[in-house]
C-alpha cells in the first residue's frame, strides 16, 4: 500500500494532459520569433469584441457572421469564424457556423459565397479560401472535441478536403483555383494560398504527396509573381496567372488585380503560419522579405498604409489592422525582435471594432502572434501510421471518479489493469477519443495500456 501511495503521489505531481487545449493556449512556436509583449488576454479581448459585433444567431442553432453589409454573410466570414471559435474552444458557436455552412452549399458541396442573412443565396458557388479555412478548422475541432458526438468532425474534414482536391485544385497542375467554378492557371489568388494547411491535409488524409505538391506550387506562383513584376519585398498582387504574370481575367477586380490591396494583404499572415508551424524555408524567405519591406523601406509599422503598387509605391491611405497585422505576422520570420515587438504593439493598439474585415483579421492575427493559432497533434501524424508516444496519447480528466477519456489511434486496443495486476477491462477504439468507465471499480491507481501496430504506451490514472 505504501508503494501504491508513493506512485499516486508521484503521478499527481505530473502535469495532466488533455485533448482539448484551453483558451488561451499561449503556445510557443519552435520556429521564428515571438513578440515580447504577447499576451493571451489580447486574444481573449479581441475575440469578445469580434463575437459581440459580428455573430448573429439564426434558427435551429445556426450562427452567421455579419458582413460589411450586415444583412449579408459571406463564406469567407464563416471560415474565419470557424477558425476563431474552434481555437477559442467555443463549441456552440463553431457547430452553429458549420451547420450554417452546410445549409448553404452548392451542387459540389462548397458553400455559396454570399447569403442573404440567415437564408437565401445572393452569390452562387464557392470561394476557395473559405473551404480551406473551414476544412482546417474541422481538423482542429476533431482535436479539441473528438468525433464521437452528433457532428463527426473528422469525417466532415476529410469530405471537405476531398471536395477541395476535386473541385478547387486545377487538375494536373496543383494550382489552387479561387473557386470551384472558375480559375486555375489563368487566374488565381495568392492570398488564398495556405501551404501550412496543405501539409496538415496531407497528414490527415494520408495524401501527403499531392498536398505537398500544392504547397510547392504556391511558392512557385508567389515567387514568379514577385520576380516578373519587380516587386518590392513580398508585395504580391491581388490576382495573377500561375506564371506570376498579371491575368487578363482580373479586369473586374480592384485595379485589375495588379496591386497589393485588400486581397493580397493577407498573404504574409498565411505564409507566416507555414514558417511558425513547419519551419519551411520558402515561408521564411517570404516572411523576411515582407518584414524587411516594413522595417527597412517604410522604417516602421506605424507607417504602413492600406495599399501598394508592386514596386513599393503607395496606393492606399489608411493605417489599419488588415495590413498592419499581416506584416506583424511576417515579422515572426524577420529576425528582428525589436521590429516584431513594435509591430505587435502597433496592431494591438488599433481599434476598429465595427469593421468586419479589420476586426476579424486583427483577431486572427493576434491568435497567431500569441500562440493561439497552433498546429494540433492530429494534423501532424498520418491517421494510419500513428506514432505511439506520450505526446499523442493522452488521458483526461485525471484523477476521475468514473470516466476517463483516452485520445489514441483508431483501432488501438485499450487495456485497463487494476492495482493488483488484474485485467478489468479491454476494448478496441473506434474513434480517436474513447471513454473508459471505471465507475464500478474500486478507488486506486490503475494502468491503462494502449497498443497499436505492435507499439504500446502505458499510462497511470487515479480512480477517486
TrEMBL record:
<dbReference type="GO" id="GO:0008810">
    <property type="term" value="F:cellulase activity"/>
</dbReference>
<feature type="signal peptide">
    <location>
        <begin position="1"/>
        <end position="18"/>
    </location>
</feature>
<feature type="domain" description="Secretion system C-terminal sorting">
    <location>
        <begin position="395"/>
        <end position="462"/>
    </location>
</feature>
<dbReference type="GO" id="GO:0030245">
    <property type="term" value="P:cellulose catabolic process"/>
</dbReference>
<dbReference type="InterPro" id="IPR008928">
    <property type="entry name" value="6-hairpin_glycosidase_sf"/>
</dbReference>
<comment type="similarity">
    <text>Belongs to the glycosyl hydrolase 8 (cellulase D) family.</text>
</comment>
<keyword id="KW-0136">Cellulose degradation</keyword>
<keyword id="KW-0119">Carbohydrate metabolism</keyword>
<dbReference type="InterPro" id="IPR012341">
    <property type="entry name" value="6hp_glycosidase-like_sf"/>
</dbReference>
<protein>
    <recommendedName>
        <fullName>cellulase</fullName>
        <ecNumber>3.2.1.4</ecNumber>
    </recommendedName>
</protein>
<dbReference type="InterPro" id="IPR002037">
    <property type="entry name" value="Glyco_hydro_8"/>
</dbReference>
<keyword id="KW-0326">Glycosidase</keyword>
<dbReference type="Pfam" id="PF18962">
    <property type="entry name" value="Por_Secre_tail"/>
</dbReference>
<keyword id="KW-0624">Polysaccharide degradation</keyword>
<dbReference type="Pfam" id="PF01270">
    <property type="entry name" value="Glyco_hydro_8"/>
</dbReference>
<keyword id="KW-0378">Hydrolase</keyword>
<dbReference type="InterPro" id="IPR026444">
    <property type="entry name" value="Secre_tail"/>
</dbReference>
<keyword id="KW-0732">Signal</keyword>
Amino acid at each position: 500500500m505504501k508503494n501504491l501511495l508513493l506512485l499516486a503521489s508521484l503521478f499527481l505531481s505530473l502535469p495532466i494532459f488533455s485533448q482539448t487545449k484551453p483558451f488561451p493556449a499561449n503556445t510557443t512556436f519552435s520556429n521564428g520569433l515571438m513578440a515580447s509583449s504577447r499576451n493571451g488576454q489580447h486574444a481573449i479581448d479581441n475575440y469578445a469584441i469580434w463575437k459581440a459585433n459580428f455573430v448573429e444567431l439564426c434558427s435551429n442553432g445556426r450562427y452567421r457572421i455579419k458582413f460589411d453589409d450586415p444583412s449579408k454573410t459571406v463564406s469567407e466570414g464563416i471560415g474565419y469564424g470557424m477558425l476563431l471559435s474552434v481555437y477559442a474552444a467555443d463549441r456552440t458557436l463553431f457547430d452553429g457556423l458549420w451547420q450554417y455552412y452546410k445549409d448553404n452549399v452548392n451542387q459540389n458541396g462548397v458553400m455559396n459565397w454570399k447569403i442573404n442573412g440567415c437564408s437565401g443565396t445572393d452569390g452562387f458557388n464557392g470561394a476557395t479560401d473559405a473551404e480551406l479555412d473551414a476544412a482546417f478548422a474541422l481538423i482542429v475541432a476533431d482535436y479539441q472535441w473528438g468525433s464521437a458526438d452528433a457532428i463527426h468532425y473528422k469525417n466532415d474534414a476529410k469530405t471537405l478536403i476531398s471536395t477541395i482536391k476535386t473541385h478547387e485544385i486545377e487538375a494536373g497542375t496543383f494550382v489552387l483555383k479561387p473557386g470551384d467554378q472558375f480559375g486555375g492557371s489563368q487566374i488565381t489568388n495568392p492570398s488564398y494560398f495556405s501551404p501550412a494547411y496543405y501539409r496538415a491535409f496531407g497528414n490527415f488524409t494520408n495524401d501527403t504527396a499531392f498536398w505537398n505538391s500544392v504547397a510547392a506550387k504556391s511558392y512557385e506562383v508567389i515567387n514568379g509573381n514577385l520576380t516578373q513584376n519587380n516587386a518590392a519585398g513580398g508585395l504580391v498582387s491581388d490576382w495573377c496567372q500561375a506564371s506570376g504574370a498579371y491575368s487578363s481575367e482580373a479586369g473586374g477586380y480592384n485595379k485589375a488585380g495588379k496591386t497589393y490591396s485588400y486581397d493580397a494583404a493577407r498573404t504574409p499572415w498565411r505564409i507566416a503560419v507555414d514558417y511558425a508551424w513547419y519551419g519551411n524555408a520558402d515561408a521564411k524567405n517570404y516572411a523576411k522579405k515582407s518584414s524587411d519591406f516594413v522595417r527597412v523601406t517604410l522604417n516602421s509599422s506605424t507607417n504602413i498604409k492600406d495599399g501598394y503598387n508592386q514596386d513599393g509605391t503607395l496606393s492606399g491611405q489608411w493605417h489599419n489592422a488588415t495590413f498592419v497585422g499581416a506584416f506583424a505576422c511576417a515579422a515572426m520570420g524577420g529576425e528582428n525582435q525589436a521590429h516584431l515587438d513594435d509591430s505587435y504593439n502597433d496592431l494591438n493598439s488599433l481599434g476598429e471594432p465595427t469593421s468586419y474585415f479589420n476586426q476579424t483579421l486583427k483577431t486572427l492575427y493576434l491568435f497567431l502572434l500569441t500562440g493561439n493559432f497552433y498546429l494540433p497533434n492530429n494534423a501532424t501524424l498520418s491517421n494510419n501510421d500513428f506514432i505511439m508516444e506520450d505526446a499523442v496519447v493522452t488521458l483526461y480528466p485525471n484523477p476521475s471518479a468514473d470516466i476517463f477519456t483516452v485520445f489514441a489511434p483508431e483501432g488501438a486496443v485499450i487495456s485497463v489493469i487494476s492495482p493488483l495486476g488484474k485485467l478489468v477491462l479491454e476494448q478496441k477504439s473506434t474513434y480517436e477519443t474513447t471513454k473508459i468507465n471505471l465507475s464500478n471499480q474500486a478507488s486506486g491507481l490503475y494502468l491503462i495500456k494502449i497498443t497499436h501496430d505492435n507499439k504500446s504506451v502505458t499510462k497511470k490514472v487515479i480512480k477517486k
